[in-house]
Specification:
By secondary structure, the protein is an all-alpha fold. It is 40% helix and 0% strand.
């Protein structure tokens, strides 16, 4: 639990990647859809420094994406297939999780019986 709670990275998915690469003999096996089920509207945020950022444009692009891919969103059956192995390199934490109150709260979840 310490490896998860004490890594200074606000992205829980990268924290799981860290645990998979650094703390386990074999990396996690991940099941992932071919197309995203969640869309990130953060094109105007920290990771992207766009000068003419307009959330309405991002919403329009996503709406067109949904219209184009509507048939594949709720398939009648799901099948598994072996994908391409992803990187297992160590990544630098992004930060944002250094507040001791956050770490202590996270650690408290593992202390419950």
């Amino acid at each position: 639990m310490q490896a998860f709670c004490k890594l200074d990275d606000y992205n829980w998915d990268w924290t799981l990647h860290h645990i998979s690469v650094q703390c386990r003999k074999k990396p996690f096996i991940v099941i992932a859809p071919l197309a995203p089920r969640v869309y990130h509207f953060g094109m105007c945020g920290v990771h992207f420094q766009m000068k003419n950022c307009d959330p309405a444009v991002a919403l329009d692009e996503y709406t067109r994406f949904l219209d184009t891919n509507k048939a594949g969103l709720f398939p009648p059956a799901v099948a598994g297939m072996r994908g391409v192995p992803r990187t297992t390199k160590k990544v630098q934490p992004f930060g944002g999780w250094g507040d001791p109150r956050d770490v202590n709260l996270c650690m408290s979840f593992s202390n419950k019986s």
